[in-house]
């Protein structure tokens, strides 16, 4: 009887080790910190009632190929991951927003907990007249990225900075969608940042 209990506990222990080795934050990667992303705001507890994303803001990983592929409309900020759906909740346009000026130079910053060989980073902004209370769709974004940084398989640093320019001629509340395409997998990381353009 004692031998059966020990064997059972050993098997249970191995199962737990396997579970922790293959799931959870072992797949963590990165998020934008400037302009501050929704997942970073949740992680810092600046925004409450965020669900699971507050514990793993670096894990918003979905299919790459945006805008032709990738997460479905309405699920862009969560990367299409159901447990991070709070990121897609527009909260009536009440997410805290970074104050910026259209046309200004700006350093876009990613914090990469686990850097990967990278194809590119690309940044999109909402069109004039978009509805900040409606779920984010491709139609709400300008069709072309305003900034693309090609890596060609190179490895970015843990603190990755992309100098760019905020698109000119825009004002009011907008949203920036940043996408990080991994080079050697089918995935990308997504981050939404709310901005107020003066």
From TrEMBL:
Keywords: Signal
Alphabetized CDD domains for the sequence: LPMO_AA10
Record keyword Signal present: yes
Domain Chitin-binding type-4: 29-195
Taxonomic superkingdom: Bacteria
Chain segments annotated as coiled-coil in the UniProt record: none
PROSITE patterns from the UniProt entry: PROKAR_LIPOPROTEIN
Signal peptide: 1-21
PANTHER family: CHITIN-BINDING TYPE-4 DOMAIN-CONTAINING PROTEIN, GLCNAC-BINDING PROTEIN A
Protein's name in the database: GlcNAc-binding protein A
Organism ancestry: Bacteria, Bacillati, Actinomycetota, Actinomycetes, Kitasatosporales
């Amino acid at each position: 009887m004692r031998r059966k209990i020990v064997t059972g506990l050993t098997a249970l222990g191995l199962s737990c080790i396997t579970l922790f080795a293959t799931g959870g934050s072992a797949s963590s990667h990165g998020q934008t910190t400037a302009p501050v992303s929704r997942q970073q705001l949740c992680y810092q507890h600046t925004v409450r009632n965020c669900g699971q994303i507050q514990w793993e803001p670096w894990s918003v990983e979905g299919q790459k190929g945006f805008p032709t592929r990738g997460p479905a409309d309405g699920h862009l900020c969560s990367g299409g991951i159901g447990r991070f759906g709070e990121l897609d909740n527009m909260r009536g346009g009440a997410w805290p927003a970074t104050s910026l000026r259209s046309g200004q130079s700006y350093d876009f910053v990613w914090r990469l907990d686990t850097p990967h060989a990278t194809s590119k980073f690309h940044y999109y902004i909402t069109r004039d007249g978009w509805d900040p209370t409606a779920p984010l769709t491709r139609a709400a974004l300008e069709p072309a990225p305003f900034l693309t940084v090609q890596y060609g398989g190179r490895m970015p640093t843990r603190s990755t900075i992309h100098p760019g320019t905020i698109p000119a001629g825009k004002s009011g509340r907008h949203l920036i969608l940043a996408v990080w395409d991994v080079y050697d997998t089918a995935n990308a990381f997504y981050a939404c940042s709310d901005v107020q353009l003066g």
